[in-house]
Amino acid sequence: MQEKKWWHDKVIYEIYPKSFKDDNNDGIGDIKGIISKLDYLKDLGVDIIWITPFFLSPMVDNGYDVEDYTKVNPIFGTMDDVDLLLDELKKREMYLMIDIVANHTSDKHPWFIESRKSKDNPYRDFYIWRETPPYERTSCFGDSAWTLDPLTNEYYYHEFAKEQPDLNWENPKVMDAFSSFIEFWLKKGVKGIRFDVIHFLGKEIDKDIHGYGPTLHEKVKELKHKSFGKYDIVTVGEAWGELQNAIDFSSYENDELDMVFQFEHTSYTNDRDKHGKWTPRPINMKDIRDILFKYQRALNDVAWNTLFVENHDLGRAINRFGDLNYYRESGTMIPTMIYFLKGTPYLYQGQEIGMINIRMNDISEYEDVEIHGSFKNLVLDNHILTRHQFMEACYQEGRDNNRTPFQWANKRNAGWNRSHKPWLKINENYHYINAEDETKDPSSILNYYKKVFALRKDERYASTFVYGSFKEAYLENENVFSFTREDDKNLLLIVCNMHSYPTNIYLSSQGEVLLHNYEEKEIHEGNNTLLPYESFVIKLR
Ligand code: TEU
Ligand code: CA
Fold first, then answer.
1. Among the options 238, 258, 313, 397, which is catalytic?
2. CA 40–ligand 2 middle distance (angstroms)
């Protein structure tokens, strides 16, 4: 049984700093831009902000290639800005979660600069070097995972870009270094950590094992013991894997991380039998329901769940789970479906105002290292996909969809900065999808998200949403996503029509309507015909 934690009732909002708000008008988002929007976030119902890496980095992978873990990247601002951010968060009873990238560093990190100098360099075994690659492997970003370095004529391993050499976690000095980086930030008052690709720390490279190796969990336990375990903070791991992996990381018994991100629902559209996200397949919302319910059933008594539909690596939720022809209806069904389940709600910047995928005209308009690496591999070098096929996949699954500048207003550059050309194209639909206009529109997606989080925190129902039991409902109707949340105070029923066509459900009792995305429509005892994406929350007891 879980003991109560300070963060159990908190809502976490992910910020990709390069894209959130450009305060000094240089075309890149920054920390001062984040500070300028804390009241907007507080008003939305956000408690904790997770900012993706803002440490010193050459930005090959927009900060996930770290050059120094205790220095702030000057393109985002200064350490004084971070200290001011921490102070401003504290004033608002909000908290900061940072993003620790432990699997790899930048190739500009001093460790790697030293390591590649000679085979007997003291930093040589901070990384993974081999005379010849023990096997061929394509990296996540489309090139070979083994790169020959001419200085010592040996190959080094990288799961991602060649500018992101993987660290050797068999070396205890790596563990000690990360323990000190983590303490550096926790001593400053950081209250949360997201661990990037935490499953890759358990490599057995020569056995062609890249994640989830036999030493993984002892390493995570040791890192916790030596660093974050000494602090009352919240931790979440990015762990691409299966249900059991989530339990292994986050079960109360194993006591490693508080929760993990699993991607079975968001990667459903990636056809693994072909080329994953670059060969997308159609969504099946009944399967999505079954996946999410599977995690609710399996984790709810032994671990803590994450509740998310977007992040900085995925496309927009309305494109994936909704329907642009029913933009507002499906844009309000999605938060009703996901955020009343049991677990911690994670919201990604722009999701709350219904930002959607961007249609680029040419591959050159994309910036993402994963897009360009995969284009070179699948189109240019190996002619596996046509340029058109790849561009269509980018529209549906490319990471840059979620990295276009946040749309603050129907003004020049979407109110994101004053005038400087943004680092990535702004979606032209900012004229009607933007925070300022939606704030004024009572029926907007933004104001619906505010109602969702206000209901979840309403003192009459909060304990039920945070700790109440989960139970599926109306499973026989494959068009609805429905479940109850119950404790001794309330029995709450959530019902979502997952499709654009009507469907019927029978309500055995009237219930009090707490939230409804068709406000003018009545819900009554007996048979109810649900309109496209109609969703509601009612109190049955
Ligand atoms: O992502 C890990 C990862 O596997 C995803 O990027 C995956 O390759 C795909 O893009 C999912 O659609 C983490 C970070 O979230 C990502 O931004 C980094 O690029 C990556 O690790 C390397 O640090
Ligand atoms: Ca800036």
1. 238
2. 19
Exposed (0-12), middle (13-18) or buried (19+): which is 410, by Cβ within 10 Å? middle
Asked if residue 234 lies in contact with residue 48, where contact means CB atoms within 8 angstroms, the answer is yes
Residues 6+ apart with CB under 8 A from 320: 266, 269, 283, 309, 314, 396
With a 6 Å cutoff on the Cβ, whether 196 touches ligand 1 is: yes
What gap in Å lies between CA 95 and CA 190, rounded to an integer? 7
CA–CA separation, 279 vs 12, rounded Å?
31
Q: Of the ligands numbered here, which is closest to the C-alpha atom of 161?
A: 1
Does the beta carbon of 534 lie inside 6 Å of ligand 1? no
454 secondary structure, DSSP code: H
Ligand lying closest to the C-alpha of residue 420: 2
Q: Whose CA is nearest to atom 23 of ligand 1?
A: 64
DSSP class of residue 127 equals: B
Residue 336 CA from chain centroid, whole number = 18
Distance CA 223, CA 123 (A): 20
Ligand 1 probe mutation, 14, 64, 104, 167, most atoms within 8 A of CB: 64
Residues 6+ apart with CB under 8 A from 464: 485, 486, 487, 489, 490, 492
Per-residue pLDDT tens over the stretch 464-476: 999 999 999 999 9
Q: What DSSP string describes 318-368? A: HHHHS-GGGHHHHHHHHHHHHTTSSSEEEEETTGGGT------SSGGG---
Centre of ligand 2 to C-alpha 178, Å, is 29
**What number does the ligand 1 atom closest to the CA of 160 have?**
22
Residue 47 among the catalytic residues:
no
The answer to whether the CB of 357 falls within 8 A of the CB of 429 is no
Q: Is pTM, for the whole model, over 0.70?
A: yes
For residue 51, the CA-to-ligand 2 centroid distance in Å is: 15
pLDDT tens, 359-408?
Answer: 999 999 999 999 999 999 999 999 999 999 999 999 999 999 999 999 99
Q: Whose CA is nearest to atom 2 of ligand 1?
A: 197
Query: Do the Cβ atoms of 46 and 13 come closer than 8 Å?
Result: yes
When the pLDDT of each residue in the chain is averaged and rounded to a whole number, the result is: 97
Determine the Cα–Cα distance for residues 77 and 62; give it in Å rounded to an integer.
15
Is the Cα dihedral 387, 388, 394, 397 positive or negative?
negative
- What secondary structure, in 3-state letters, does 11-24 show? CEEEECHHHHCCCC
Ligand 1 atom nearest 263 alpha carbon: 11
Gap between the Cα atoms of 319 and 453, Å rounded: 22
Cβ of 99 closer than 6 Å to ligand 1, yes or no, is: no
Task: State yes or no: is 196 an active-site residue.
Answer: yes
Query: Angle at Cα 195 formed by Cα 207 and Cα 158, nearest 5°?
Result: 40
